[in-house]
Amino acid sequence: MRPWCLLGCAISDIRQPATAKHGVAELVSIVAALPQESRELFTRIFDVDRYTACLSIPDEMHPWIVQQFGSLEAVRVQKLVRVTNRITGDGTLFNELRAYRPMEESERLKMEAVIIDGSKDDPLNEPEKFTPEDTFGRIRGKYSITAANVAKYDELHA
């Protein structure tokens, strides 16, 4: 007798070999590769959508982007996946690039010191040079300007 998951599909249908390298970005392909019956059961409950988010990166940010994320292209064109439970309406978003954001405690403490110190190295002192821009441009106000999030959470996440 085969073990069954909550969706009614055989666990062996969705379990990947230990050597396989699958990330959330490949979830659409993983679901498409399921046997028809398992795929139909899965899609009866979940919607999985894959889309891209794009941004423009100022030249001054290029070295930092490559150091943090490995390449400029990975940040310019980001692969996002949205999974929605059709029954409950709950959903979640994934962007593998967000795992590479600089989030170390020492970095947070350095940032706090920069804020307190009023350092000239603050990227917000020159946002057009040191913050990314959405492909539709920046929105400017009398006392403000927008910047894009370097590792987007959603397609138009700023």
Key structural traits:
158 residues; alpha+beta; 7 helices; 17% strand; disordered N terminus
Describe this entry's structure for a reader:
The structure is a single chain. The chain has a four-stranded antiparallel β-sheet with strand order 3-2-1-4. With 158 residues, it is of the alpha+beta class. The radius of gyration is 20 Å and the shape is elongated. The chain contains seven helices and four strands. It starts with 10 loop residues before the first helix and ends in a 24-residue tail after the last strand. The longest helix has 13 residues, at 105-117. It has helices spanning 11-14, 27-32, 36-45, 62-69, 72-76, 105-117, 127-130; strands at residues 46-56, 77-85, 91-95, 133-134.
